[in-house]
Structure formats: structure tokens, C-alpha cells
# Entry
Amino acid sequence: MPTASDFKRMLRDASLRVTSPRIAVLSAVHQHPHSDTDSIIGIVRDGLGAVSHQAVYDVLRALTAAGLLRRIEPPGSPARYEARVGDNHHHIVCRSCGVIADVDCAVGEAPCLTASDDHGFEIDEAEVIYWGICSGCSTSTSS
Amino acid sequence: MPTASDFKRMLRDASLRVTSPRIAVLSAVHQHPHSDTDSIIGIVRDGLGAVSHQAVYDVLRALTAAGLLRRIEPPGSPARYEARVGDNHHHIVCRSCGVIADVDCAVGEAPCLTASDDHGFEIDEAEVIYWGICSGCSTSTSS
DNA sequence: CCGTTTTCTTGAATGAGTCAAGTTTTTGAG
DNA sequence: CTCAAAAACTTGACTCATTCAAGAAAACGG
# Structure
């Protein structure tokens, strides 16, 4: 797990100013991947004390734009964030409890799939969401 | 394009009551695939006069649950609906203007992809969204 | 250390969708 | 055809996630 100085370096390398909210958000997402914005706000406040929700929204947007975080938006859920970027992996979402797990992409680079008909689009990414029931939910439901 | 009596039969076959809002919504989605809820409300009102937005939300939910419509939710866009159901096709979304096109699935049945690691999930669907720039946007941007 | 620029705080506002109570419509049974 | 029960629709308030806006505070190059 990266340390605070690692996060500072990441921010500098991305030409972003180093602030405590940014370090706290980076740290929170590294420690709790697939968290939604509200959870991240809670984790950040546990570490720093009062931080406005707006600051967290701003930070998440800046870090996502800089490529330090990735935003995922499964239908039916608020936006979630993860720190694993650049490897074009995919996700499995549980239809019952909403938990998300990572799925490695066999190809690794986007777009990892070719459309049967691209309709003239210049396709740069193929995003895959697998839907199913996680092991915890399937056992509790079938019992 | 199906007629009003076709829509009535579809509703009866799905054990749903036949009402004018339902026929109008079915017709609207058949004629304007990938429309968002607000556009559908507008189209329905053009045909029927006053219809509450709540009625359209209720109808869309009932028709989706009955399998007559499919709901699609590209990140950054409100929910959209289409009448092409049952063939597990996918979508291309333009990053610039948001327009959506259908992409046939080579396999046809869900799940059409196998995850490299299913993490113990029982996967029933693999949803693919291709992201890119449509031909209209790429020509206007490059000029 | 200072000024500029960026970021954060505060608080209001927006958009999509849901909740709830009451009225109307549909439809199967008589 | 008529009626009652169930389902659907209307109205209007409300929630949630997110954004907008204006001013205060912090970062950092010089």
C-alpha cells in the first residue's frame, strides 16, 4: 500500500498541487476500492476532520481527470472510484447486494473488443460489466 | 413498425392491462429508440395530451419488468429505453454528443463473454458499452 | 515572504427519479 | 350490462447525487 509521500509524488507527477484533502482522498480510494462518493467523504473526514463534500467532489474529479483514479458508474448506483488505472480491467457487479469485484481483461489494452459493426464510430474503449450474484448472496438466498 | 393493435396484443400477452399511456409509451419507444425518459414524456404528450410524468415512469418500469422494453443507462446520461429486447445486443456511445447506436452481439445469448475470474459470482449477463466518437462529431471536430 | 493562481468552504440550486394519498380506469364475474 | 376489486393514473411533495456560485484560504514560483 502506498504511503503519504507516495501520494504526494503521484500528485506532483500529475502537475497537481499537493493538499491534504487530495492525499486523504487518494489514500481512501487506495484502501477502499469501489467506494462511492459518500463513503469516501466519510473516510476522508475520519482522517482529516471537517472537509466539505464539495472539496471531495472537486478532488475526485481532478484526480480522475489526471488519470490517478478511475470512475465507475454501475447503473443503479452512485459513482464509485478505484485507484487501479491503466490496465483496462472490467467489473462484476452483484445484482443483489451491489458489491463489485475486478475482472482482469484478457487483452489489457483498450479497446479490448471489436464491435461487429462500428457504425462509423472511432471506438477507443470497450467497457464490460458482468452482472450476476455474488457467492454471499447466492448462499443466503438459496437457504 | 407495429400498430396500436400490435401493442395491445403485446400488453395482453404480458398480462398487463391495456391503457392509452402504455400504448403511447410502447409506440414512442418503438419509433424513437434510445430516448431518455423526458423525451418519451414529450412524445407521449404529443399523442395523448396531458399525461403525468409519474405515469410514464410507472409505465416504463412495468414494461421493462415485463420484458417489453430494455432500459439502458450509459454513465453521464439519464436512463434511456429501447424496444429491441431479447437479442443481447450492445451499444456504442459517442463521447461527444451522446448518441447511441446498436451493435449486434456475435454470440446473441447472455452472458456472451466469460470472465477471466468470476470470483465465485454466478454471472448471467455481460454488458458491453463501446465508447468512441461518432462520424458526425469526428468530422466537425477535426475541421 | 508575496502575489497569483488554484483549491476549499459555505450554502443554494438542479435534475432525475421516488413516495404517498387519493381518484379514475380496467376488467373479470355475475 | 353492471359492479366490485384490483390496477393504473394524477397531483404534489420529497429525496438523493451532483453541480453552481461567491468568497476565503492555501499552495508555490519568483
Notes: The first helix of chain A runs from residue 4 to 13. The mean pLDDT of chain A is 95.
